[in-house]
């Protein structure tokens, strides 16, 4: 692509994507509640169409920006700006954050006091969770409390302030994925396009202000720090620093602790490459060092203010009790239709999800992790292991939302990907974004099967698949051509 064509394409992508984001922001401002299917008439349909048209424009701009080099950050920033000045999009979670923050800031324990008692914030909490206590670890609660204080306890501005940590999360993710991609020999520009400029990521982290963004960002920094120190021949320091960051990520949101798997695998592989032993005692010793650091930080932060592990209380909201994209949660709801009380099903559903998750993570380690005596550390793929662990936790859990997969997406983006894999991720980004919008208006029982059918229709025909693969080719096309020209391909 010539410099002139590049500038023209960049201007087009920025303009179209920002217009789409602005339309979605306008819709979010006009329609702050999910559903309202009974009001779908006359002027009420207008705001909904704004959101749909806006999403189409944003996705089109993202796909058109695939060949750009050096403009990923600019497009992500411009597309995010309209999302910053509207109500949280496609989720009411930010209202729950404000309620929990208000409780902690006013001397209440969010693990003991329900969100529905959060003073001026209570009326904005989703009715599913108003009678439940907090499910997030302490660092999230302290951040939420700081945001409500910053907003002087104003209900509207407290919710809007939850975008501050979300923006910080986007910056951290952008820095971490580019560094990790470069260290892995992958394309940092492709990583930025897949994990930062992706509408699925922007809509949910910036638009929805989900704390998953900060959890993913800290987890990525843990991997980056540990691997960097190991490459500098300081593997034990890498395990301590990386492990401490893993513990911090876990106190933002629980899946962050899974980054310990990738950390240990990365450090072990690097240490073996530098001449250390590739044995089970060495691997177990490194795992124990990383785990000790992680547990120390997780326990220390949890002890602040006496909060502890209160998110495990029976009063905390259980994701298995509501419908989501999780097959386990859907099964619970279907059984509930027969007359069995849903609360009685929550315990068994949670236990099953934990067993499935553990089995899936073990499989991931057997597939990609180091196995001394069977598969050498040099043949392991720690980042693939990490992506698999994040995906396993999301898919096998008792609750699943599209934004739960952002961690796996961010890690995968740092790998050297085949065109087929990249095209599948592109299609996944489009479908995930559409699913988020569709679920705002309908049940996952309708939205998820529809998204699956659309995905199959867009992938199975050879012509359609070639279209997605052509986008994947353009994402890294210039890098591939440059490597071929230099004799590296």
From TrEMBL:
Q: Where is the signal peptide?
A: none
Q: How does it sit in the membrane?
A: Multi-pass membrane protein
**What are the subcellular locations of this protein?**
Membrane
Q: Which GO terms describe its cellular component?
A: membrane
Entry keywords, A to Z: Glycosyltransferase, Membrane, Transferase, Transmembrane, Transmembrane helix
Q: Where on the tree of life does the source sit, at the highest rank? A: Bacteria
* Primary location: membrane
One short Pfam name that applies is MptA_B_family
Q: GO molecular function, one example? A: glycosyltransferase activity
**Chain segments annotated as transmembrane:** 12-30, 45-63, 156-178, 190-207, 213-230, 237-267, 287-312, 345-368, 388-412, 424-441, 447-464
InterPro entries, sorted: MptA/B-like
The similarity comment for this entry is: Belongs to the MptA/B family.
Q: What is this protein called?
A: DUF2029 domain-containing protein
Species in which this protein is naturally found: Acidipropionibacterium acidipropionici
Record lineage: Bacteria, Bacillati, Actinomycetota, Actinomycetes, Propionibacteriales
